[in-house]
Specification:
globular; two-stranded antiparallel sheet; 8 helices; alpha/beta; Rossmann fold
């Protein structure tokens, strides 16, 4: 365990699996105290036990980020257990992909409430701690859908474009008070959810190989690579990075293609 995040008290949403799990593990290894929040209370409890056995000061809470009282209760528990929070990592999210006119109304509501409004609920709950502390960091996990549009993926990119707007607006609003707000835009990352997606194809290996052939490194990213970027933005190593978005896609988003 190192000390890059020593003294940091971090609230992480969507921590039970995938990128959130990797972020929690990386932050624990770097010396942070953690509150792990997820709708999957059992999942984050199991992760918390694992990290506690490794010496991490950690709390697990069941939390629905679409429900403001649930968020406020979870943040209050974190504050009581760890002390005033210094860092928020808004990782929780969900893929919602539809053709716009055939999309059910509830799909629009669910996507925006999870992928955008949930991040605002958490930011609103944690910001008072950061301001009272004299500064801190918020890291929003966005997506390359935040600046690239793929047909059939509506309304997910709408929410992720909004998350970048939230990142920039809050970053500028509170910069003078020492609060940094940044985003990370992952591309294809080999999470359990993505791995499960390949299994929906008749030939999962071919489907994965087809996607990997489109990526300049010839492979997908791994959750750990996103996690270490979150560690960097949460640390004191990035004091002048604010209202920005770091892309983790192997260069795919800048590659020319017809």
């Amino acid at each position: 365990m190192s000390d890059r995040l020593s003294g940091k008290r971090i609230f992480i949403t969507g921590a039970a699996a995938g990128i959130g799990y990797a972020i929690a593990d990386a932050c624990a290894q770097e010396g942070a105290s953690l509150c792990l929040a997820d709708r999957d209370g059992e999942g984050v409890s199991q992760l918390a036990e694992t990290l506690a056995d490794k010496g991490c000061h950690v709390l697990a809470v069941s939390c629905d980020i679409t429900d403001r009282p649930s968020v406020e209760a979870a943040v209050s528990r974190a504050r009581d257990a760890l002390g005033p929070l210094t860092t928020l990592i808004n990782n929780a999210g969900m893929n919602v992909f539809h053709e716009p006119l055939s999309m059910p109304e509830e799909a629009w509501q669910r996507c925006l409430s999870v992928d955008l409004e949930g991040a605002w609920h958490c930011s609103r709950a944690v910001l008072p701690d950061l301001l009272h502390h004299g500064g801190g960091a918020i890291v929003n996990i966005a997506s390359t859908h935040a600046f690239s549009i793929i047909r059939g993926c509506f309304p997910y990119p709408v929410a992720k474009h909004g998350l970048i707007g939230l990142t920039r607006a809050l970053g500028i609003e509170y910069a003078a008070q020492g609060v940094r707000v940044n985003a990370i835009a992952p591309g294809y990352i080999a999470t359990p959810a993505v791995e499960a997606h390949w299994q929906t194809f008749a030939d999962p290996a071919a489907a994965r190989a087809n996607i990997e052939s489109l990526l300049p490194p010839g492979r997908m990213g791994c959750p750990r690579e996103v996690a270490m970027t979150a560690v960097f933005l949460a640390s004191d190593e990035a004091p002048f990075i604010n209202a920005s978005c770091l892309t983790i896609d192997g260069g795919r988003s800048v590659l020319y293609h017809d």
